[in-house]
Design goal:
about 170 residues; alpha+beta; Peptide Deformylase; two-stranded antiparallel sheet; binds nickel (II) ion
């Protein structure tokens, strides 16, 4: 397993829609394992392939926060939202590609998602709570969309400027 560098916004790869996985799903196993390790290390609860510069429709997540509960690492290939509740939910979201910036985003409270697993088997699940927010946030990444795209242009510019500065400071080290 290898920890992969996480791309920081602004980066053109974070704005680009990703291609579906068309080869054998099992071929994605090593990149998925790298992504899970990178996500846990960050630490974060979700990571999409474009965040490590892999432009395919693949995401990983684990929204188990209770240390008493067993972790649930999930790998979703070609995920698709098949149903979304009318009821909305507001969560304060963050993103590993936009470190230390948080903002409230309103999304459907519950969603059904269909995907392919690493064994090539179709899966479908009804997500609620943090899982529902997380899976929608990660699927957005596969469409080149970031949570700051839901904010006002002013707020988005403010955050983007901070990220440009962060990247400049990091490049200097
Ligand atoms: Ni994100």
């Amino acid at each position: 397993m290898t920890l992969r560098p996480i791309l920081i916004h602004p980066d053109p790869r974070l704005k680009k829609p990703c291609d579906p996985v068309t080869g054998k799903p099992g071929d994605m196993r090593s990149v998925a394992e790298d992504m899970l390790a990178t996500m846990y290390d960050a630490p974060g609860i979700g990571l999409a392939a474009p965040q490590i510069g892999v432009m395919t429709r693949l995401l990983v997540m684990d929204c188990v926060k209770d240390p008493e509960v067993a972790p649930r690492p999930m790998v979703l290939i070609n995920p698709e939202i098949t149903w979304a509740s009318e009821a909305l939910n507001t969560y304060e979201e963050g993103c590993l590609s936009i470190p230390d910036q948080y903002a409230e985003v309103r999304r459907p409270a519950e969603v059904k998602v269909r995907w392919t697993d690493l064994d090539g088997a179709p899966q479908e699940e009804h997500f609620k709570g943090l899982w529902a927010t997380c899976v929608q946030h990660e699927i957005d990444h596969l469409d080149g969309k970031l949570f700051i795209d839901y904010l006002t242009p002013l707020k988005r510019q403010l955050i983007t400027r901070k990220m440009v500065k962060l990247k400049r400071d990091r490049a200097r080290l």
